Amino acid sequence: MKTILITGSSSGFGLEMVHDFTELGYHVIASLRSAEERKAIFDSVNDKSKLTILNLDVSSKDDIRHAAEHINQAHNGELDVLINNAGYGLYGALEDVSEEQIRHQMEVNFFGAALLTQALLPALRKTKGKVINISSVMGRFSLPLGSVYSASKFALEGLSEGLYYELKPFGVQVCAVQPGAHRTGFVKAMIWGDKSQEESSPYINQTKGLLRNVEEMTNKPKATGSNNVSKIVVGLVRKKKMPRRVLAGKDAVATGIAQKFLPEALYHEILHRSYEKVFGSEV
Which of 6, 24, 69, 147 has the most neighbouring CB atoms within 10 Å? Predict the structure, then answer.
């Protein structure tokens, strides 16, 4: 029975993956913050014999060390798949976010994935396992008020690409999944800059525009459901050979096509015009 460790398992893509992989007979280590107090999240998992709930805050060095110790003690130091899914979105103009917020965004979205992967690589090398990083289409482009979030995902993309080649000689595969807009709890979980929603912010109109746009996109009946990413990840785990990256969702695929085939100047002009519609002529 293959063992999969999933970070950020409490909601959205992570929780969907916990359900899908346990249904398929994999042993899933579902990790999340404050696990003991939040076990009820997994009450709907049908086969709990295939589920281990692990307390893991990816921004905690102690929790990362304990996760590695758990793999060594409970699984003979072997892990088949690591899915780095934990993360959140910090939005707001750079002037409106605090240094603490910027550092925490990078700590969770980038350093957490990097350091957990580092700690578990000995276990993954033993099985010639797989690392799947849940990135974002915003690891391919950025937008107004999304610079810090995009920076964290660009960093994760760079890590994924380097590891793809670095680990290839050991038989460990690495893939970055880049979701676009999906119907998840992402919008409700968005963190805004400390000054973003103050009327005195020079960017307040942009902030209101982005809020309207993101809510409309993710609440559309035709918006891609959260289970789409889980299905993609299940397919990757079952593949003999994973690609280096995968786009998830219609908007993400459209972005990839535009970047591949349009001249750079035209691509950025289209982005600029679309941003004007969302944020107003001041962009």
Answer: 6
Where are the strands (E) in the chain, listed by range? 3-6, 27-32, 51-55, 81-84, 90-91, 130-134, 173-179, 182-183, 191-192, 224-225, 245-248
168 is catalytic: no
Q: Of the residues 2, 26, 50, 149, which is catalytic?
A: 149
Q: Which of 10, 59, 150, 152 is catalytic?
A: 10
**Residue 135 is a catalytic residue:** yes
- Residue spans of the domains in the chain: they are 3-250
Cα gap 53→45, rounded to integer Å:
12
Specify the pTM: 0.92
The architecture of the domain spanning 3-250 is: 3-Layer(aba) Sandwich (3.40)
